[in-house]
Specification:
Layout: H1 8-43, H2 49-109, E1 118-119, E2 126-136, E3 139-141, E4 156-157, E5 159-160, E6 167-172, H3 181-192, E7 207-211, E8 214-215, E9 235-240
Parallel strand pairs: 2-9
Antiparallel strand pairs: 1-4, 2-3, 2-6, 5-6, 7-8, 7-9
Length: 259
């Protein structure tokens, strides 16, 4: 069977619309790409060298101003801090000078007696209490309040009395050797003799001393010169002449004065 002959122009005519369509599409795509490139170029601003230099200068100025502001703040706070510290130091030295002047004034008005200092405040480094009872020829001698406390109330000697019940307060910076019976008696005689100090206490004979009811084992002379070590809640009885009442073996200290 013979295939019919189709002339070439026939195929060319058939595909011509396709070619036209493809060419049209290519033209459209090319136009769109060109337009997109043009739009992109329009969106990218042109860089003016002078404007760029001006912007750079402005940025540098801003950075410089920030640094200057930080330095200014740092200088300000440093000045305030140093001034505050100087004020604290001045206040501290002023207080020290005032304390020194006050201490010198106290030393002038109320000098140490038998090594016992008079402090503006009661000390708590070593704080104990003992009880004294004194008999002169069988009659009890009152140990008055205020021994060791000047009438102006400016200070307290390390040994003193607040009441007339015979309780002796020993309040010192630390435990010292000069916190004994003879030290209290010397303080009483030299600084507060007007407070019922008996002349018999200067006598070097005729005395007996008892500690918690037991006779003192050392040499007994005048209470002014007999060193009897004192411990917390000791009960000390001193007797001069006769008759001789029985010495105390116990004393009920108030609950606010614990051992």
């Amino acid at each position: 069977m013979l295939t019919p002959h189709i002339p070439y122009p026939f195929f060319a005519d058939c595909y011509k619309p396709v070619y036209v369509a493809l060419d049209t599409m290519r033209t459209e795509v090319t136009w769109r790409i060109d337009r997109s490139v043009m739009n992109s170029q329009q969106l990218i601003p042109r860089v003016d060298p002078e404007e760029e230099a001006l912007r750079r200068e402005r940025r540098e100025n801003r950075v410089l101003r920030r640094k200057q502001l930080r330095r200014t703040r740092l200088t300000l706070w440093s000045t305030i801090s140093i001034s505050f510290l100087l004020l604290l130091l001045m206040g501290y030295f002023y207080l020290q000078i005032q304390r020194a002047q006050s201490a010198n004034a106290l030393l002038t008005l109320h000098p140490p007696i038998s090594g016992l200092s008079c402090e503006s405040m009661e000390q708590n480094g070593y704080h104990i209490h003992v009880h004294f009872r004194i008999y002169i020829k069988g009659k009890e001698l009152t140990i008055p309040a205020g021994i060791g406390i000047p009438t102006d109330g400016s200070c307290f000697y390390w040994m003193h009395t607040h009441t007339d019940d015979g309780i002796i307060h020993i309040e010192a910076p630390q435990k010292l050797h000069n916190l004994a019976l003879d030290d209290f008696m010397t303080l009483w005689q030299q600084g507060f003799a007007k407070l019922n100090f008996s002349p018999q206490m200067t006598q070097s004979s005729g005395w007996q001393i008892f500690i918690n009811g037991k006779p003192f084992s050392g040499v007994v002379t005048s209470p002014l010169y007999t060193e009897v070590t004192l411990n917390s809640h000791d009960v000390i009885t001193l007797e001069y002449g006769s008759p001789n009442p029985p010495p105390d073996t116990f004393y009920a200290f108030p609950s606010n004065l614990p051992r």
